[in-house]
Structures are given as structure tokens and as C-alpha cells.
Amino acid sequence: MSHYNDRTEVERIMESVPSVSPDEVKAFLLAHPEFVTDDPDLISAIIPAQDNGHNVVDMQQFIIGKLQKQVRTLRDIQSELIEASSLNSLAREQVHNAACALLDARNFEHLIEYITAPDGLARAIDVRAAALCIETSNGVSGIGVRSVRVLEPGGVARMMGGDVSYRLVANVHGSRGLYNHLAEEVQSEALVRLDFASGAPAGLLALGGRSPEQFHPEQAADLLEFLARIVERCVRRWLDLPPAL
User: Fold this and answer.
1) DSSP 8-state class, residue 127
2) How does strand 149-151 pair with strand 129-135?
3) Looking at residue 19, what DSSP letter applies?
4) CATH annotation of 106-239
5) Helix (H, G, I), strand (E, B) or coil at 208
């Protein structure tokens, strides 16, 4: 009697479960393949033996192929990370060497020459050109003394597109007003704001890249900002200026 009641209960439960056709199961699995491929227990339960009939799909080869693809993807990611780490390490070393050279300047004239000359800062950090700019109060822009570019009041914010600390741009045509005869070879650009002292006119460090993607908006700018802070301190030291607020 008990066996009969148990069977009846099972049948009742089965009847209450909505029926699903094989086509519906197939459509679901095609729409959500990860339901099978991301479930190791399910895969191990349904993988057929390799010596089954010709009408049986060999899931083992499918899984092996997927794993091989994942391994290749991980290797590619690893290679990209190693390459990026090497490039970051090289850039950090270049900027640190340039910072030491800035601090070793013999006088103010030597400092400006190192920043603006093609064989100075530009060569040290592997860019095509570097320019130092400062705003003037008389409204006249142009080339000032010692190759320093002079900007009109508000010129720094205008060039940087607002009151920001830096701007990185890819695929540009270099400005002749910034890079002189090297402008045609500048294809990307980094502009970093300089605050020399409290009450002093705003300044700008412009770096022209050799390639269209040497500088780009998604790039980290911590090393560039570090370099700008060194330039500020060197100028402040030689001109005996008070610290910026």
C-alpha cells in the first residue's frame, strides 16, 4: 500500500511540472551555450566516449578546443602585459633621468636650453620636440627670450581646453608656434600646466610625440605630471620665486 502511494505521489508531481519539448531545450542551449560549457560537472556527465557510434557528437574535442583557445588568449594577454610593463619601466627610467638632468642645470639659461633644445629634454624622454610657454600680461604672444614661447593672458587654458592640469591628444598637426621647424614631425601632443609661483603667470610644458599614438587621452599622465613638478621647482629655485599655493 505504501509503494502504491509513493508511485502515485511521484506521478502527481511529474504531472505538475510544465512539459518542455526537445526543440525548446535545443533552442535554449543554442541561445545560452555557457549553461553547458561553464558547468564542469554537467560537462563531465554528458561527454560521450570517443568510441561511440558515428551519430554521437564528440564533446571531448569541443572542450579541448575551447581550453586551447582559452590558453592562447591567456598567453596573448600575458605577452601584452609584459610588453606594457617593459614600456612603462622604460618610460619611468627616461623621465627619472630627465629629472636628474633638470636638477643638475648649472644656471637658469642652461635649464631653459635643456628644456627647449631638440637634443635636451626631448631626446631624453624620446619625443620629437619640447616647448616651454608662459603667459604674458601685455597681451602679445610670440617667442620670448631664451626660446620660451609667450602666450596671451588665458592662453594656457585656451590651449588645454579649460582649467585642467594636462591634456593628451593623438593624431595632431604640430603647431609651428610651439615647435618651430619641428612642427611637421609632431603627430601627437602632451600639454602639462605649470604653476611656477603664487601670483606668477601660468606656464605650459608642451611635448610633441613622434607617432600619432605616442600620446593619447586614455594614457596615464603621472610621469608627465611628475616631470612638470620638477620643471616648476627648477624654475622657482633659479628665479628665487615663492612656492605656488
Assistant:
1) -
2) parallel
3) P
4) 3.30.450.40
5) strand
CB 207 within 8 A of CB 231: no
- Is this structure's pTM higher than 0.85? no
Which residue is listed with cell 626660446? 147
Q: Give the three cell numbers for residue 150.
A: 609667450
| Closest among 181, 188, 190, 199 to 135, alpha carbons compared | 199
Residue range 152-164, pLDDT digits in tens: 889 999 999 888 9
Any idea what DSSP says for residue 128?
A: S
165-198 pLDDT tens trace: 999 999 999 988 889 889 999 999 999 999 998 8
Point out which residues pair with 129 in neighbouring strands.
208
Sign of the alpha-carbon torsion through 48, 51, 56, 62:
positive
Measured CA to CA, the distance from residue 38 to residue 29 in angstroms comes to 12
**Cell 543554442 belongs to residue:** 30
Q: Are 190 and 131 in contact (CB under 8 A)?
A: no
Helix, strand or coil for residue 140?
Answer: coil
Least Cα distance to 148 among 180, 190, 189, 122 occurs for 180
Collapse the DSSP code of 75 into the 3-class scheme (helix H, G, I; strand E, B; otherwise coil) and give the result.
Answer: helix
Pair 172, 225: CB distance under 8 Å:
no
Distance CA 44, CA 52 (A): 16
Grid coordinates standing for 161?
581646453
**Would you kindly state where each structural domain of the chain is located, as residue ranges?**
106-239
Q: Which residue has the cell 601670483?
A: 199
* Regions in the chain scoring below 70 on pLDDT: 1-20, 36-37, 39-63, 79-90, 138-146, 245
Tens of pLDDT, residue by residue over 217-240, are 988 888 999 999 999 999 999 988
User: Which amino acid belongs to residue 64?
Assistant: I
Grid cell digits, residue 157: 587654458
